[in-house]
Design goal:
The complex is a heterodimer of chains A (81) and B (366).
Chain A (H helix, E strand, L loop, with lengths): L4 H12 L7 H8 L8 H18 L3 E6 L3 E6 L6
Antiparallel strand pairs in A: 1-2
Chain B lengths: L2 H7 L1 H19 L1 H4 L12 H37 L16 H59 L4 H28 L8 E4 H11 L1 H6 L2 E6 L6 E4 L1 H17 L10 E10 L2 E8 L6 H4 L9 H6 L7 H12 L2 E7 L3 E9 L2 H11 L2
Parallel strand pairs in B: 2-4
Antiparallel strand pairs in B: 1-3, 4-5, 5-7, 6-7
Helix pairs in contact in B: 2-4, 5-6, 6-12, 7-9, 9-12
The chains are: A alpha+beta (81), B alpha+beta (366).
């Protein structure tokens, strides 16, 4: 299983803000690449890739989308909330 | 100048008159001796002697005129030089006048010049004070602003304040920050010469920095940048800081007037670098609201906000004016085209110095 650089940074940010919602804006700002600028679609794509990879790995946590607010890394059992 | 002065000025003239009168009288008086043999007629001097007297008088007049011309000429020449001199203080070099009239004129100019300088220096001091004051003030206002900014950041991370409220507060502090920056730039523009270093700048790298400086605004407005530049670095002759100021204004405008992208169709601001034989063009293209046709011609005027200014209260009418001023001083050309509802394109044209040399062979051709 390989993570691209952007995916890895994204995962890192989600882990850091553990169990707190992190806004799309905050993620975009952190992921902003000096060479190729990250846009909204790129973020969406990366979030779903990371989510899929976490599932494939059988990780104990998943990325939950909070509509209009952002993303949250939650332990799997609480994900049904 | 009183009557005596007037007469003193005319003294050489009076002397010349007396000399020619004396000479003419002497001719008449010496008539018998001059026309030896020929007795003087009862009717007076002979025509030849009359002519001689006239000739003497004319010689005296010519001598006087020559003398007077030589005497007055230096002052006129200096006045003529002064008239064509573009420098304010050239007057100081004006030497003393030869006549009282000339001296009077010189003193009158000197008095006026001094009064003018006094007035000018008091204005200059006032101007310096107010520009110093406004730049200090702008700097000081930045401190509370950055405290607010930090508080907001903390609140975003740990607080309970709803994100919408934080976002709108953040938007307002950004506007304040932009306004203060504009004020500082305006103050700096006043002493542009002291703050200007020309060197070769990689334009694509400079633009990338501008885009990164505005990343927060891009993200918040859901507008995304794209930079299209040739892969090899393109060097242009400019001042790095001022060029970034110009593009900063253009990018900030492009973001501000882009309608927020809806869902799958985010708005873009593209920066296109296009080299051409004599330099390169940079286009800042937005897909924003555009500028009404009747306003396009006036967008570079100071404080002009036009129709969009009424719709978007953030408009200061200074951004494009300052951008054009800086471009003018850097020797770049700036043009704007816009179509309402479609978008605006601002083009900055850099002329590379090599174009001057490239022209040289053509000049030597017949």
């Amino acid at each position: 299983m390989e993570f691209t650089q952007t995916e890895f940074r994204l995962l890192g940010l989600l882990v850091q803000s553990a169990e707190r919602i992190i806004t799309r804006e905050a993620l975009l700002e952190q992921l902003w690449d000096d060479v190729s600028f990250v846009d909204d679609n790129t973020l969406t794509v990366n979030v779903s890739r990371v989510r899929r990879k976490l599932e494939e790995l059988g990780a104990g946590a998943t990325i939950v989308t909070k509509r209009g607010r952002g993303y949250l890394l939650e332990p799997k059992d609480a994900a049904g909330e | 100048m009183n009557r005596r002065g007037f007469l003193v000025d005319r003294l050489p003239y009076v002397l010349a008159f007396l000399a020619s009168l004396g000479l003419a009288l002497a001719v008449v008086r010496l008539e018998p001796a001059l026309s030896s043999g020929t007795p003087a007629g009862p009717s007076g001097p002979t025509p030849a002697n009359l002519f001689y007297a006239g000739l003497l008088a004319a010689a005296v007049l010519l001598t006087y005129l020559f003398y007077d011309y030589q005497r007055r000429r230096p002052f006129w020449e200096q006045l003529a030089a002064l008239r064509d001199n573009p420098f304010l203080d050239a007057f100081a070099a004006l030497g003393p006048g030869a006549t009282r009239e000339q001296e009077l004129a010189r003193e009158a100019i000197r008095t006026q010049h001094r009064l003018y300088l006094d007035e000018l220096s008091s204005y200059r001091a006032g101007q310096e004070w107010s520009s110093l004051f406004s730049s200090r003030w702008a700097h000081q206002m930045k401190t509370p602003l950055s405290v607010i900014d930090l508080t907001l950041r903390e609140e975003e991370e740990f607080g309970r304040c709803p994100p919408e409220v934080l976002a709108s507060l953040r938007e307002e502090t950004d506007k304040l920050d932009e306004g203060l920056e504009l004020m500082l730039s305006n103050a700096r523009l006043a002493d542009f010469k002291a703050d200007f270093v020309a060197h070769r700048v990689d334009i694509a790298a400079a633009l990338r920095r501008v885009v990164n400086d505005h990343r927060a605004a891009f993200i918040r407005r859901k507008v995304y940048p794209s930079l299209q530049a040739p892969p090899e670095p393109l060097l242009v002759e400019t001042d790095d800081k001022w060029a970034r100021f110009v593009f900063g204004q253009l990018v900030a405008n492009a973001i501000k007037y882009s309608r927020p992208g809806a869902g799958d169709d985010p708005k873009r601001v593209s920066l296109e670098v296009e080299p051409y034989p004599q330099g390169c063009r940079v286009r800042v293209v937005d897909q924003g609201v555009g500028i009404p046709e009747q306003d396009v011609a006036r967008v570079f005027e100071p404080f002009f906000t036009g129709e969009n200014g009424r719709l978007y209260p953030g408009a200061t009418g200074m951004g494009l004016y300052l951008a054009r001023e800086v471009c003018r001083r850097l020797g770049h050309q700036i043009d704007l085209t816009s179509k309402q509802g479609v978008g605006t394109t601002v083009t900055v044209t850099f002329q590379t110095k090599t174009s001057l040399h490239a022209d040289l062979p053509n000049l030597t051709k017949p």
